[in-house]
Amino acid sequence: xxxxxxxxxxxxxxxxxxxxxxxxxxxxxxxxxxxxxxxxxxxxxxxxxxxxxxxxxxxxxxxxxxxxxxxxxxxxxxxxxxxxxxxxxxxxxxxxxxxxxxxxxxxxxxxxxxxxxxxxxxxxxxxxxxxxxxxxxxxxxxxxxxxxxxxxxxxxxxxxxxxxxxxxxxxxxxxxxxxxxxxxxxxxxxxxxxxxxxxxxxxxxxxxxxxxxxxxxxxxxxxxxxxxxxxxxxxxxxxxxxxxxxxxxxxxxxxxxxxxxxxxxxxxxxxxxxxxxxxxxxxxxxxxxxxxxxxxxxxxxxxxxxxxxxxxxxxxxxxxxxxxxxxxxxxxxxxxxxxxxxxxxxxxxxxxxxxxxxxxxxxxxxxxxxxxxxxxxxxxxxxxxxxxxxxxxxxxxxxxxxxxxxxxxxxxxxxxxxxxxxxxxxxxxxxxxxxxxxxxxxxxxxxxxxxxxxxxxxxxxxxxxxxxxxxxxxxxxxxxxxxxxxxx
Length: 488
What we know:
Helix content: 25-40%
């Protein structure tokens, strides 16, 4: 991951490329004033400020060698449109091998100056990411933008907001690296070493539960999943104490199946191709806790990463067998490809009984049902508390890491009951799979307010988006940070 340098200036000091973002209305106003010198060129090239429309001027404008005009349209103008505009500028610069760019804060009545500047920072950093670790041909490697100037009349407070956004996005990119890397590299052993190395010297407390400790605790569900792997399962706990005046804690639990073959219910080959993405929840939890430390967020936050590989071996856990959870509830295993909920159940129960949090949130690439419902655009959310669900919804609207609430009615809860054991891991019919999974997990929350975020569709995208290439998105890091910052 290449880090981009962000500068804030009232007047540009870089002459390589200047980028301007316009709606049709603001373009019209600019052509009568600041852009009057290129009015004829803009008219000739039919640039009107439509959404994702771009006009690249090699001759440049003002002091710039090159100028890029970017349109964001005239409907639903938001910070997300500005974020995408910045991404277009960065992608153009990469294509032209330009290493330094200046982006002007747009004047939009629909978006505040602070939000527009923050969106420019976010779009620039997220778009400048590309996973290049295994590229060896120089001509095929991405050229990164080394420096972006944000040009505008910004106060120190507004610049500080932008700096915070920069940190969050840089950590989201670390999450993307973890998810994108080979599953043979980023396995449970790797995660333990990585977390300890990255967080060494910080105020964060890291505890690792290996299989011996997990057995003593009775984590029978989690341990069952990883039985077929040479890389042993473990639980990583990260504690951040940002508010010593409060006893309240927020618990975030992440699914970290570093590779999911489906177990004995083996997946078809095409379904296994991207299964390195099944560690996205645990990766997001790591990046979130690092963000809390970096920004000194005044909250107490616990992160739990449940790590295992779901592979095929003579010791692999089996469909139809009954396993005992840490809570003591027995679970009929209806599919070895429904492993994530087993790992999460023991981790959630461990977390709520040990830390007594005011809220438990899980991030998990859990079900195909969530993808079939929302595609790659929205995370599926289930929650036992409407206030928390609304807070995550609003945080998603701000960050564009959106989540939509689905029900957890009593009828769904009853479906988790088993004839052979206390619970069944999969519903009898191929319906409401994502809701069933949320209801199953809620059996282990001990009545703690619970928000379940199924990020199966949003954590890893097949189709590139304005500031995401194909692959990991880091979904959840910006969302959860915004949520924590909103809490009083």
